[in-house]
Amino acid sequence: EEILKEITDLVVEGEDEEVPKVVQKALDAGIDANVILREGLVTAMDVVGPRMASGDMYVPEVLMCADAMRAGLEILNPILAEGDNASLGKIIIGSVEGDLHDIGKNLVAMMLESSGFEVIDIGINQSTPRFEMAIEEHDPDIVALSALLTTTMPALKETTKALKEKGYRSKILVGGAPVDQAYADEIGADGYAEDGAGAVVCSKQLLN
Ligand code: B1M
User: Fold this and answer.
1) Beta carbons of 146 and 105 less than 8 angstroms apart
2) How far is the CA of 194 from the centre of ligand 1 (A)?
3) Averaged pLDDT in 10-residue chunks for the chain of 208 residues
């Protein structure tokens, strides 16, 4: 679809005012919100990633892309979130210490919420003590940890270990691009998910 390509291009260009308008236009044209998300918005990050790695794009530009993506997501969020309201369980989610990436985490949070979980998002760059404070305040069923960098995988491991050592009842779910099932097993997490849909399936399994 032409309009999906237009959305991708606008996100890559960091057009945060245009993106929501075109996303709305795509919805009005009857395109499914999930398709707009996957083939319009998320594809932009597949373009941005390699450009960033090759030095064709710098952090300030990528931040503009992230803002444009967020602006588009805000239009889709209420539609994607039309789920049931019964709480399947309480989940605290955050990006681990040193990690400032939040687009993927936000997507995972949105999917969990729309599937009926109560989600408390504590944000990016969260240290172990911050997770502990949140756990003590909310007593969640699951703590979901996101890491997007190979350099923050050690923080993922530290936090997982520390929370396990404290003996909280919460299950620990981990994910993010560099993480896989083998690593999740190695660090003693209770679950691993590749994406938002996987996080929903895994969370349901963990609470069974
Ligand atoms: Co950064 N970055 N970044 N970045 N960035 C990556 C991750 C990178 C692969 C780009 C590249 O070089 N090709 C690379 C990592 C290399 C590596 O570690 N192997 C990288 C780097 C190097 C960096 C910096 C070091 C760059 C620098 O400063 N020189 C720096 C580090 C900052 C820090 O965190 N300390 C940095 C900064 C940034 C920005 C701030 C500019 C920006 C983030 C803005 C924001 O998030 N608000 C940014 C972005 C946008 C990216 C890319 C382009 C896109 C990430 C993204 O949002 N993807 C990324 C390259 C890429 O992924 N193509 C890149 C879309 C999103 C939907 O996917 O986040 O993977 P993702 O989430 C998925 C799954 O991973 C999974 O589900 C999500 C939905 O499908 N998932 C979970 C995520 N969390 C989960 C938790 C779960 C389960 C599943 O359970 C708990």
Assistant:
1) yes
2) 14
3) 95 96 97 93 92 93 94 90 76 98 93 88 98 98 98 98 97 98 98 95 95
What is the ipTM score, two decimals? 0.98
- DSSP label at residue 42: I
Give 185 Cα–ligand 1 centroid separation in angstroms: 22
> Do residues 58 and 87 lie in contact, with contact meaning Cβ atoms separated by under 8 Å?
no
The tokens for 112 are 């969990």
Burial class (CB within 10 angstroms; exposed 0-12, middle 13-18, buried 19+) of 61: middle
Mutate to test the pocket of ligand 1, among 148, 183, 205 (most ligand atoms within 8 A of CB): 148
Integer angstrom CA distances of residue 40 from 47, 80, 110: 11, 15, 17
